[in-house]
Fold this sequence. Notes:
336 residues; eight-stranded mixed sheet; 25% strand; alpha+beta; Aminopeptidase
Amino acid sequence: MLERLTNASGVSGAEDEVRNIIKEEIKDYVDEYIVDTMGNLIAFKGDKDKVKLMFAAHMDEVGFMVTHIEKTGEIRFQPVGGIDSRVVLAKRVLIGKDKIPAVIGVKAVHLLTDEEEKNIPKFNDLFLDAGFTSDKEAEKAGIKRGDFVVFTTKYREQDEAIFAKAIDDRIGCSIMIELAKKTYSYAVAFAFTVQEEVGLRGANVAGYRVNPGYAVILEGTGAGDFPQKKDIGRFPAVGKGPVITIMDRTCICDRKLTNLFIKIAEDNNIPYQIKKPGIGGTDAGVISKSKEGVKCGVIALPARYIHSPVAVAKKSDIDNMVKLVDIFIENAKEEL
C-alpha cells in the first residue's frame, strides 16, 4: 500500500489521485465517509456523533506550480510547500494531469561565472525544461499556468531500507488505511487531510467537523542522523523507532497522550524516540484549537531527506510504529 501511495501524485491542492486510492481501499470497511469542500476524506467507524478519538494524516506532498511559460519554451515555476532549492537541481518531474516529463533546468557548472559559483541558485533562477522550443509548443502540449508539478521518484526497497518520495505523509495514510479495516468497540474517525504542507488548511476544517475529544496525528518527520558538528545530537535517527512529539512549532502535545505512548512503548519493548522540541509542525497545530479544543498527540516515522525528491526510511520503524498504534488503540477506551 505504501508503494501505491508514494508513487501517486498529490501536490497540495491536487490530492485527487491519492484520495481515490484511499477511498477505494476503505469504503467497504467504514460505516460512512465524506469528502468535504476542502477535499478532506473523513471516514467513520461507529456513530459519527459519538467519536471520542480521531486519527489524522495528510495526503498532500510538496511540489511545484507552473507560473509562466517563456517565449523560448522554458517553464517558470514556484514551490508548493517547503522545499529547499538545493535539493531540486536537475531533478526529473512530471507536469500537470497529463504528467508531461521535464527536468528542472539549471546552468551547467562550466558556464557559471565566478560570482555565480559562490551562490546557491534560487527558484527564480531555475526553470522546467520539457524539450519545447517555444511557448506555443508548450501550450499546444497542454501546459498552462497553475499546473501542478511533482517529482518522478518511484518506490523501491533495498534490504531494510525504503526509498520513496512523499513518505511525509503517505506513511500516516498507509497506517490509517489498515486501521480503518479493523473492528472497534467505540466510535473512531479517520481524517485524511489536504493542504497540510501549505499551512495545515484541511485539518482546520476536519477538526471542526469531527470535533473529537482526542486526536492522534500519524506523520513522517525528518531524521537528523547525518554528520554534524561535534556534540550536536544526531536525532531522531532512522532505525531507532517511531518518534513521539512533546512540542513542535505548532502544538504542545497533550501530556496524557504522550505519556501513554511512552508507557506502551516501554512496557512492550518498542523502541521509540522523542522529537527535538520546537522543530517542524503537523496537523495537530490546528486540530488542537478546534472548537473547545482537542487533546492531540503525534507519532511519526523518521525519514531522511523529507521534502526532497526521495526520502529514506526503515521497515523496522514502520513495524514498530504500527505496533505502538495498535496497542494504543487497545488501551484507548479505558485510558482516555
